[in-house]
Amino acid sequence: MSGHGKRYEAARARIDREALYSPAEAIRLLKEIEGARFDESVEAHFRLGLNVRHADEQLRGTLMLPHGTGRVTRVAVFAEGDKAREAEEAGADIVGSADLAARVEGGFVDFDVAIATPDQMGNVGKLGRVLGPRGLMPNPKTGTVTFDVAKAVQDAKAGKLEYRTDRGANVHVTIGKRSFDERALLENYATLVEEIVRAKPAASKGRYIKAITLTTTMGPGLHVDPTRTRGILEDLEQEAVPA
C-alpha cells in the first residue's frame, strides 16, 4: 500500500492532530495549506451519537447552502408528457421514462440528482440496487418524488443538498470549494451545523454531535470543536486579528 504524497505530508505536518480547532481556524488553515492543482471541494464530516438501527434515530433531510457548493449538478428526471417538457424547460440534463430506467439498470449513473413524478415510481422502484447505494434514489421526504418537477429541478441546480446518516451514524456534506473565501465557507458551515442541530431526532439520547472533521478532497482532516455550534460567524472577525 503506497503512502501519501509530499504535498499531503507537508499539509499534515501543519495540523495538530490532537487539537480541536474553532470552525474559523479550521477553514483558515485549510485555505492556507497548499492544495492540489484543481479546485478541491471542502467537506464536513459529522459523527453522531445515533443508533441508526432504530428508525426513529435515523437522520435525513435537505438544505440549501447560502453560497452553494460550487459544483455543477447534473439532474436526471423520470417523467412523461407535459411533466417531461417542464423538466427540460427547467434545465434537467437527462429526461426519460422506461427508456431512462433501462439505461440506469444497465449501469448509467452519470448524474448527481434523480427526480421522479409519482406515476414513474413503478419504473424507478426497480432501480434501488443501482441508485440506493449511491444515494440517488428519489424520495418524497427530500422533494425528489413530486409532480412539481420544475421547482425540484431548479432547486437541485441551485445547490439543494440531501444529507443522511450512513450505517455508522456519520453524515458527509460538501460545503463549497477551496477557492471560496473564508466567510462564504464559514457561512455554509454554520448553515449546515444549524440544520444538523435542528434535525436532531427526538429519540436521540446522550451526546448528539460527537465529532466534526473538515477536510478538502485531497487533504488531511482537521478536527473541529463539536461544541462550537453558535457564534460561528463572530469568530471570523475575532480570529482575523493577527496574533
UniProtKB/TrEMBL annotation:
Any GO BP annotation: translation
Its job: Protein L1 is also a translational repressor protein, it controls the translation of the L11 operon by binding to its mRNA.
Keywords carried by this UniProt record: Repressor, Ribonucleoprotein, Ribosomal protein, RNA-binding, rRNA-binding, Translation regulation, tRNA-binding
Annotated source species: Gaiella occulta
Transmembrane segments: none
Family under the similarity heading: Belongs to the universal ribosomal protein uL1 family.
Protein name: Large ribosomal subunit protein uL1
GO molecular function, one term: tRNA binding
